[in-house]
Structures are given as C-alpha cells and as structure tokens.
Write a structure and sequence with these properties.
Four copies of one chain form a homotetramer. The first copy, chain A, is α/β, with parallel strands linked by helices and 351 residues long. In chain A, 37% of the residues lie in helices and 24% in strands. Chain A has 13 helices and 15 strands. The longest helix of chain A has 20 residues. Chain A is globular and about 55 Å long. Chains A and C meet through strand 7, strand 8, strand 9 and strand 10 of A and strand 7, strand 8, strand 9 and strand 10 of C.
Chain lengths: 351, 351, 351, 351
C-alpha cells in the first residue's frame, strides 16, 4: 500500500473543517497531522475536534516542525499567494481553495513557485469531482449532446459572506467567492475559454444588513461569449435563504443536459393537499458536494502517492480569476469586457 | 357537422356537475338540456348554475318530456340498475358512473336492456381517457415493457364517503366506490382478467368519525393473481387528507412503467432550507382527471354521433363489480377468493 | 346563456389551426364562421378540416360579407398592423398573435385603431393563461417569494423558422418570433419594466441550413436590468431538436420559484439499466400550452360577451416589441441598450 | 483516537468486496487484515485486489492465526449459523449479512452464541444506514405523517440469483435473498411486527433460464397485516433488467411519505423529442446504497471501539427470517399464514 500522505491544514474555519473531516473520517491513506490558524481559539477547538496535536499560529512555525508532505490552504483569498508560495518554497504540495488569488500576477507567482519547486498544485474546484458533474463532463466529451451552444450555471447560497469576502480590496466579491465554481465549470464543460463578458449586479438586501461596502451586490447575472462562439450565463445570489443551489444546464447542437438538482434527499412528505408535498433541499455546500469534497481530496492524495499531476491546477484557477476580473470591470464600467483586456497580450497562450 | 347530442343528467351532485361542466364549457357538439334530481334544492342550484331549464324530480317525468338522446347517470350505486334499464327502455343512450351496480345480476340486466334496445352503454372509467393512462396503454400494447408481470394501482382520496357509500347494503364500500377505477385499470393494462384475490382491510379513523357501519374500513390492500399468471396490488385509502392520488406502476418482462404523478402543477417554491421546497399536489379527482372527464364525454358524444360503440361498456363495468365482490368476500372470510366463486360457472366467457 | 361570438380567422396556417381547433372542439360559446388566407390551397384544406364554408382571400372580402364579431390574426408579423387596423376600423374585436408588430409606431397605430373604434384587442400571450404560469403569478403577487430579484425565462423549440421570420425586414428574428413570450412573461412576473438590455447571439447551424440571411442567429442570451433593480435572463434556441421547452425560474428576496417542466407526460419507462429511464418531453408548443390556448380564447370570447377588457392587450404587446428592438440594437452594436433609447421620451408613461 | 479495529472477511465474493472496499478506501479506523474463502481463485484475486496478505481456506485456519477483532460473514445463507457461532465462540464480533439464517432455530443459536461470549452481532441491513431511510425513520418517529397505516416496499434487481439462492433447501428463495431488506424495513418503519401474511408468486422467466428448481418464482407480492392493525405490501422481482430498484411508500393517518427514487444520478439528457429525456437509474445495489454500506460498517466499527451495541442485530434478523418463513408457507399452502404459526408459542416476546 502507498505511503500515508501527511497533511498540514492552514485555516481551521468552515472550509478547513470540511477537508479535515474528509481526511479523518474517510481517507485511510492520508493523515491530518498539523494545523495552522492565527486565531488561538479556532486552533484549539478545531485541533481538539479532529485530534490534531501539532498546532501552529503561522505557516512558518509549522515549517520549522516540518513533519508533513502537503498543505491545504483555506484561508481568506488575500492570503493565498503568500502562503502558497511559501509552502511551495518548502517543497510542500499545495491544495489551494478557490478563488486562487486576487489577481493574475498573484496566480502567476503561485504557478511559478510550485513548478520551480517540483510540487503539485491542486485547486479546490470540487464540482469536477462530484459524481454528477464528472459523469456529465464525460458524456459531453463523448458527444452525447453535440457541440455545446449555451451553458447556464448558477450558485445561490444562504448566509451573508464575511466582510473581507465582499470587499473588492481583500477579495473580488461574490463573483469570486461564490461564483468561482461557475467560472471554472462553464469553461470546463463548454471546452472553451470565455472571450467576452457582460455583467449586471443588484443590491437588494445590503441596506437591511447595514452593508456599506462600496459596490456591494447580492445578485449577479453574467453573460459570456466563449471563444468557440458558444454563449454562457452565470447567476449568483447570496445570501438566499431557500438553500444551497448549484445547477448547470447545457444546450448542445444535438440536445439538452441538466446537471444537479434542487432536491437534497429522496424523502418526500405530503400532509396538506392545499399546500402540496415537501421535498428536502440541499442546505449547505458541504452537504451538496459531500462526495465531491471527499473525492477531490482522494485525488490530491493519490496524485502525490502516484506522482501524477492533479487534474485541476493553476491554469484553471487563473482562468476563473480572469473571468472574475473581467466581470467586475464590466459592471463597474457598464459595458462588455473582453478577456483579452484583463489577460494582456498573448496571455491566452496559457490555456 | 354532426347533430348536437341532447343530454339529460340524472343526479345533480358532485360527479354530475363535473359532467355538466364538461358539456357546457368544453363540448360544442353536445348540449345539456335536462336535469333530474330528487332533491329539490340540488335540482334548483345545479339547474341555475348550468343554465338548464328543464328540471325533473324523476327520470319518468323527464321521459315524458322526452326531448333528449342520452342520459348520464351519477346517482348512488343502488339506483343504477333501475335508472339504466328504464332509460335504455326508452331508447336513450346511457353513460353510467362507476361502480356499475351492486351485483352481477344487476349488471346483466343493464347490459341486456341496452343491447335489446339498441342503445350504447358507456361506463365512467375516465382513467382510460386520461392522456397519461391512454398513452401508457398504447405503449404496453406496443410491447415496450414486454409481458406485464406485476401491476400496482392506488387510489387515495380526501373526504369521508357518504353513509350510503360505506354500507355494504347500498354500495360495496371503498373497494367499489373508491377503487372501481383500479379494478378496471389493472385488468385493462395487464390485458388479463383477475383470477384470485386476497384482501386485507384496516379501520384507523372510523372511531374518530363515529362510524359504526358494520365492516367499515378506511384502508384496503388487495393482492390479485391474474389469469395470465401476473400479479397485482391495489391500495385504497379514504379519507386521506394529503390529496387525491391515483398512480400505477407496472413491471413487465422487459422493464418498468410508471403512470401518473403526485405532482399537480409545475410550480415549485422553496423559501425555507430547513424544510425544503413545496410542489403542488392534486387536490381532487376532477382536478387530477380534468382531461379524462372531458375526453370520456367527447367519446360518448362521438360514439352516438358516429354510431360506433364506446370503448368501455358493460363488460368492463361487470368485471370491476366482480373484483369488488370477490375482494369483499375475501376480507370477510379471511381467505383468498377465486373469481370463479362469484362469477359462477362459465361466466368467464363474458370477457 | 351569452350570445355566440362569431369569429373570422385570418391566417390558416399552424397557429391559426390551433385556434380553430380550440373554437371547434372546446368552446361552445364561440363559433368559427369565416376563414381568410391568401393561399388558395391552405384556405381549402383548413376550411375543409374545420368545416368552415365562408372562405376569403382577403380580409376586405370577408368584411364585405361581414357576418362576424371578431377576428383572430395569425399571419406573419409584417402584416399585423394593416390587418388589425382594418379589422378594428370595421368594428371587429381583434385577437392578435405575437409579436404585435414590427415596431412601436405600428403598435401605436393598432392600439389607437382599436381604442377609437371601441373594440377589444387581445395579444396572443397564452402563457398568461397556462394554469402553471397563472398560478405562479398569483403566488408571486401574494408575496410568497418576496420581491423578485432575478428571473430566468427560456424558450427553445424545434423546427427552423420560415424565411420571413428570420429576416429583420419582415420580422425581428428569433428575439421576436420565439422569445416574445419571454419578454412578456419576465415583465409580467417581475412586476417591472425592463430598463436596460444586453444581448449575445450565436449562429451554430445556419451554415448547415444554407441560411445567408444577414445577422441570422439560432442562439440568443439576453441580460436585462429592470426598473425595479431586478435582473433577468432570456435564452432562445431554435431550431433545437430535443423538444419544445418553456420554463421560468425566479429568485425573490424570500425564496425560489420554478414554473414549468421539461416533462411532457407522466408516463416513465425504464428498460435498460445502462441507459436509465425515459420521460416524455413536450414536443411542440400546442402540446405544451394546450390549456393556455384554449383558455386565452375562452378569455377573449368572455371579454366580448361580458364587455370587459381582456387582461393582456396592446400595452403588453408594445413592451415586448420594445424589448425586442432594444435587444436587437444591443447585439448589432455590441453594447448594453437602454429601453429609453427605443421608447423615446416620455413613452414609458404607457406602462 | 480509538484503536484500529482489525477485521477478517469471510466470503470474498461480490458482497464481501463491497465491505472490503468500504474498509480499505473509506474507513481509517478499521483495517481489513484477513480473508477467508474456500475457493482458492477467489481468495487470491480478492486478496490481491485489496492488499490482504493473510488468506485462509477456512475460518478455523484464520482463528489459529487469530490476529483480528471481528469478522464479516458474507457467505451463502446455509453457512451462516455455523460460521457465526464459531466466530462468536472465539470471541470475535460478528457482522452478518442477510438473510440471517435458514430458520429460527439457527437464528436462536447465533443470538445465544454472541450473547454468551459477550461479542456484538450486527445484521447487514444497510438500508437503515442509508441517509434517505434514516431520515425517513426519524421523521416518522417525530410524528410527521402520524400513525402509519399502509406501507409498500419493493426490491427489484437485475441478475439471476445463484442456484443455492433459489433452492428452498439452501436458502429461502427470493423472499429471503432479495426481500430480506423489505421484511426488515417494513417492520422498522411501521414500528410494529407483522402478524399475518399472504403471498402470491409468479414464474415468468424460469423456463427461458432453464430453471427447474421446485417452487421457483421470479415475482412475488406479499400482503401483510401488522400487529398495529396497519397493512403492508412487499414486491420482489428478480431478475429485472431495468435496474436496481428499492423504494418505500408509507401512508400515515396524517399524510404520505416516499423514500428513495428510481433516479440514480442528477444528469438528464434529451436529444430526441419523439422519445423524451433520459434519467440515469441505479444499476446495482452497491451503487444505490453506497453510503449505506460505508455507514453500516462505520457503525459496526464504532460499536466495537466504543463498546455500544449495534442498532440492528439478532432480533431484527430473526424477525425478517420469520416473515420469510410465513410468506413461503403462505404461497405453498395458498392461504394467509399467521406469524404465530412459525414463531411458536410465546416467541413474540422476543420483539
């Protein structure tokens, strides 16, 4: 059997705990051995919950101890670049949560650092590992619906994002924090890069939540033209209290495909004929993508054990960031924006 | 265009009004011209509602007037035989609601009267005219699921049946009043007559409703062996407050078919992630079989105008009654009952 | 009972026959008495099929005969204005198919003619009469999902549109011919007028169909900002061979609502576990909106008989045309277009 | 962290491999350390596949080695009693696949052996650990649908059972091998023991498969009366090639509940409007109950580590066997059979 992969988790918050649980409960060939978090209380409770004794306030401290093969980074976006570059510099494989970074220069630094140090970089696009999405991709590749013409992808979720996640200085707002997955999935499933985007945003609940962040929005609708000539739409709504909703619909030259479902569990109950029957809905992203989170971590561990590159890495993360930047520019300037405007000359060659 | 068919409705209650509405609102080639009901108040309000001026307390009175071609009989079961025989004797075509009659002798009298007088007899098995059920039958006939092996049919509905409908003296209880459609549909879709039945019943709500009718039950589960060797199950629940529910599932040698749906309307709403989303349910049988009721009446009118026999008549009605009788005998005697026990020698030749 | 409304149908093609069937088969209080079509063969076969003896090559000829109360206009868009104005001038009520006309000036002429002559004008927005859509509207009005924030509406359909319907000179292309219903429904369900639109189009199948119409597109994706601040998306795909698809999804401040379904019939069949089970899909628009077509005609007839204005008329038709014009301008000029650019000064007061 | 539980798997066939995979791939706190199978080839390939070096032809040989805490028994039914009693005698915890044994005397021996030796016995009723079924049970317990009145449970599956599994001498046929889960689930969800059963069977495909086993059947329909007065239905079909199908429907005094779904994956595709759209179906039981298999094994391991009895043990296994015996007696003798006839006097006290 392959050697156990020893992992240090950086960021012991909600996303971090999802990965910790995958490692502890469902992945015999990896081990969560270290924990980094700058907040002492978080470090203590998460460490206790998952039985991790090696706890550090900083990545640097963890690297002095150095008893691990890889890191999982789940801290806020504005910290990604420095942490990923540092970990790569210490020859640790890097699993990095989305969005990859604040801008393309940071993405490039991360990609360069991992390549130079010969370590793997996997981005946290767990939808690619969800059984539904993965099967859909295979079936599109096999030509079942022909050449994709239109794709629609949505992510709507409950809960107000934290302050840093809606400030364009520390994140790129909902387009990045909520819709990164849609940027990645639409490009992946269409088999083509975005070429032009137009974005409309709306702010319905900001006032009620006393949010005065400039350019705050809680609804977004993106129009995309792909290099293939295909079209795309992304919608984001957050907070929305009806559940966590992530679905895709694709129209190809030969047919339609729908991926995902609002239904969270196959237990329906009807007790009132004037109302109807009730079907459970996915409540949270860890619930919706339970298998996706386990399987993306299996893939990361397997990549390290078998020395094969992860299927989704820096290039994919960078394209999602590029979409976010073009989209943000679009709603700020109220005009369609070409990807080439944010990618710069010749950068498309990365794809 | 064909001559308008003039119709006299006997029984101005709930089922009668469903047919009156089909005639008045959706069937240009027929006309509701007369109304018979022994209850003066019902006669008045239903007559007013549907603009029918010719109103009679008895069928005999209506037959004196005699300005109609056909009758629709929707009165309680114990009156069916006399009304149908009388109408047929006056050479009126007969549309007769289910259950056909209280026993096989009555069924035989009705069949004989209509045949002798050269008029048509159509039974109110509207499920055969529902677009879902009709398409399903065609697809089974076309061999899509192969030879049917098991059929399951259910009718669950809200509302306590009236007293006469649960008394074995004036009706045959739920097996007849609620499940007549299932007896007909299972035989029709299986393409085979029932040969043996076993029935279990339960009484969960009788006490709460102060029902002391002997042998009252509000839940029934029927096991059927068909002449083809196939098996069947029928369930009945009434009253059940979650909606009106009528569905069929068939397993054939080559596959499965499901007919019907709990969903009553394609409008779903989710507002609470801890609960889920809500889908409308069919509330009532007129709502569930809106098209079935219109189309069965279209068929009756068309049969008269074009002088072609209706697709569902006395033989079908008689078989449903036979199933009911065998089923009732089964739960009373707590043993499986052969259809031949109720049909008598050689009667199977009717099929 | 109300007087029978006598109707003359102008345009005996596919849409015309849907209305003829509603009148002949399901609407006892109206009568199809006359038929106008400039193509002799169409006039003959449709006249024969529906038993209409009074047949005319032109509306003028029909008006000389004059034995009718109302017209249904189902001819190509570029003929709408003249026919509607002429019929109104002869004091006939007008049922006019979508799109209302080629431009706003024509819309205004039609509105003025019907108002001046004291006749009713109803637009063929049958979705408003579909039971699903109608119930959804009521539930939104009742506040079930709160203030609408995002609406997504789609119409995808099989079959290549006729040449006149894809030429911007004789129609306004797919945005008008296919997506008129979406323009109307999004405005109706959002309870707000569109304020700004951005449109991307794509042409995937034109070459294979030898279409050289300038600006031809077979895929369209519209982004809308409403006056309320809400956002909207419309997609159109035609031809698409997977079926006729018309669905809406709305996110409100309190929840999500989905209207419509891909499923065309509640009969599912599974025979191959490697493939899955098969659910019928709506094949055509008359099938999808069977009740909508009957009920919109019932409404028109009822409006005339009871002298109450139809619920959907010229103002609604005009707004849909305005959306089409702004959308077309958007994709031609590759920029977002304000509705005020096409409506002109002060025209918004119509709403 | 709790000590790793060391497990020896007895029976390296299909069911055995499902558990081996759960242990190896998803359960860090247990370890598959030994393998027993009397077929050398099976032992070799399964051992290689799961990296298990300690391989034995017999349980006795494995017990000489003795380096394990628990066994999983997945061999044919007629071997269960001896293996379970032997393992318990060596103080190994026992996870035993369904059906528990051939008769109630064997069940009693197994229960006695595990109790006497102070080891745990868990039965392989994985449906109780499926997220859908588990949530449904909780909701019924919470009173959501009121007192259960009727339950319908089905198991239909592809593939002809092996010869031993259809011979009443080495198994109890389909009622045991396929429908054990239904016997357990109906009793569990109804919260009541079966009191009387009536069974009809059919043999549609036996001849085509050259099966001459006496009393062979491939379709079964069970009618149950529970001690509570509630009713139940179980259907079994095997082989059926449309997929693996396991669903339950319950009607309570207050409403309806449906558990499970035919749909295997949320990816639907439509390419042909004359056919409809295709939804994946569950193909196999390991696919349908992927989580159930992992979670039942988690539960077994957790029970051992934390010294708490498993939630489903000998009593539950024994009741399922009792149902099977009464059901078999019913179809052989063509009459309803009371459970008391097979349980004997006073045995009901076990429940």
């Amino acid at each position: 059997m392959a050697d156990i992969v020893r992992i240090c988790l950086i960021g012991a918050g909600r996303a971090g705990k999802v990965h910790a649980r995958s490692l502890n409960q469902y992945l015999p060939t990896a081990q969560l051995v270290g924990l980094v978090d700058s907040v002492a209380e978080t470090l203590r409770t998460t460490g206790d919950e998952f039985g991790v004794d090696n706890r550090f306030e900083t990545l640097e401290a963890a690297l002095e101890w150095n008893q691990f093969d890889a890191v999982i980074i789940t801290t806020p976006t504005f910290t990604h670049k420095e942490l990923a570059v540092t970990a790569a510099g210490a020859r640790k494989h890097v699993f990095l949560e989305k969005p990859m970074a604040l801008n393309l220069a940071e993405c490039d630094e991360i990609i360069e650092a991992t390549e130079k140090n010969g370590v793997y970089l996997q981005l946290g696009f767990m939808r690619r590992f969800d059984p539904d999405f993965a099967a859909a991709f295979e079936r599109i590749q096999a030509g079942e619906i022909g050449q994709p013409m239109i794709i629609k992808s949505l992510t709507h979720g409950p809960g107000l994002p934290p302050a840093w996640a809606r400030d364009l200085k520390t994140s790129n707002g909902m387009l990045a924090e909520v819709n990164s997955h849609d940027w990645d999935c639409t490009r992946w499933l269409m088999g083509s890069n975005p070429a032009r985007v137009y974005v409309e945003v709306a702010n319905f609940k900001g006032a009620a939540h006393n949010i005065d962040t400039p350019h705050f929005y809680d609804n977004v609708l993106v129009n995309i033209r792909f290099e293939s000539g295909g079209l795309g739409s992304i919608s984001g709504v957050c907070p929305c209290e009806y559940g966590y909703d992530a679905r895709v619909e694709i129209i190809g030259e030969r047919g339609i495909m729908q991926i995902g479902d609002i239904k969270g569990q196959s237990v329906i109950v009807g007790t009132n004929r004037n109302q109807g029957y009730i079907t459970p809905i996915y409540r949270t992203w860890p619930e919706r993508f339970a298998w996706g989170y386990i399987r993306e971590m299996e893939h990361f561990v397997h990549s390290i054990q078998h020395d094969t590159p992860p299927k989704v890495g820096g290039v994919e993360g960078r394209w999602a960031v590029a979409g976010v930047l073009a989209g943000t520019k679009s709603f700020l300037e109220e005009r369609p924006v070409l990807l080439s405007e944010v990618l710069g000359v010749g950068v498309g060659a990365n794809s």
